[in-house]
Structures are given as C-alpha cells and as structure tokens.
Amino acid sequence: MNVAIIPARGGSKRIPDKNIKPFSGKPIIAYSIEMAKISGLFDKIIVSTDSQEIAHTAKEYGAEVPFMRPKKLSDDLTPTAPVLLHALKWLEENGVSPNYACCIYATAPFVQPDYIKKGLGLIMSKRVSSVFSVTTFPFSIFRALNISEAGGLEMFWPEHELTRSNDLPEAYHDAGQFYWLDSEKFLKTKKIYTGDALPVILPRCLVQDIDTPEDWETAEAMYEVAKIRGLL
Length: 232
What we know:
- This protein is α/β, with parallel strands linked by helices and 232 residues long.
- It has a single domain (2-136, 173-228), classed as Spore Coat Polysaccharide Biosynthesis Protein SpsA, Chain A, CATH 3.90.550.10.
- Helix content is 31%, strand content 21%.
- The protein contains six helices and ten strands.
- A six-stranded mixed β-sheet has the order 4-1-5-9-6-10, with helices on both faces. A two-stranded antiparallel ribbon has the order 2-3.
- α1 crosses α4.
- The longest helix is centred in the C-terminal third of the chain and has 16 residues, at 213-228.
- It starts with a strand and ends with a helix.
C-alpha cells in the first residue's frame, strides 16, 4: 500500500495563501494532487494542513484531509520530517499501515507522474530507505564566490581557480518536489535524508523553488514555456 502526503500549512508570510494561490489558472496545490492521482500509485492522497480553507480546496481536487495538523507542527520553523511522522502515525493509529509514503510538496507544479513512478521503482527494487528528486546546479559549485567581511570577493575553493569547468564534478541539489520513504524505516529513523538515499534526477527546466513573489513569477513563466515545449 502506498500513500501520498502533501504538507500544506496555512499562514505563509512571503507569499500570502501560497499553497492555494492561483498558479496558471488553478490553485497551486491542485497540481500536486492531480499528478498524484494520474500516477495511479496511491491508495490514499492525504493533505496535512492546519487551514480549513486549504482543506476545502484539497478536497475539491480529490485529496483526503482526514485530520487537521496540530498547531505545534504548523509554524514557520517546523521541518518536513515531523509533519510526515505525524501523518504516518495517525494512519497507523487508524488501521492504515502503508509500505511506502511519498511526500509531494504543495508548491510543486512541475511534478510529473513518470518521475514519481521512477522513484517508487527505485525504492522498491533497491530496498533503500528513501528516494528523492534532485537536479543539477546551473553553474559549478566549485567556482562559488564568497564576499568577505571587508567586502571583497574570494573563492570557496581557490584550488579550482584554473580548473576547466568540464573537469569539475557535477553537483546536485534537492529539487523540492517529492520524497519516497520506506514507511517502516522512516518511523524508526525519523530521517528523510538517509545514508542510503537514491536520486531521481530531474531536468532543470522542470525545477523552480518558489519562496518569493519573484520566484512565483519565474515559475509561471517557466511553466508556460514547458507547456509550449510539450514537457508538461
């Protein structure tokens, strides 16, 4: 049995009503719910929220909201892992014990069923604790610069000042779309980033972090271009 868990608290400050704000024609959370449904992988698609308005929107698009997230797990500082633990423990207490859980972020309009399926295939075949979406940095991190206290520029890795970009290793970052978890292992370790974690690599054109109004505008523009290119 597989469940999708979509964390979506209310009270976003930088982007008011972020999780249900219209994105290219519909609430942004709708994309995550719809892609989870289209994947056909999940027995349950659950939204974990403390907001009645988000709960209403989530149900409207076909998700379940079987509980309201407690306030202690709904502030600005609460990381994702405790939210997922709460949801899985609630399910367990109510007679549902999924083999695998997939956390899909509410603000992931680029998430695609094929990549979600690839993640499940990896976690099942390799028997690892977690699998999550990543993408490459657009520039080599080994050429990163720091601004010193005096205001000057200095390289974090000066030993690579003359190294050709082609000779530097590729670096990846969390794409912020989804995480597959072996439920039994996660309930024990309480960790998303595990030592045996495996990646699902996404193209950069389908990844955009959305934390600020500028990010939002960029993501909408990228989304429309991706649609024109037939990527969505």
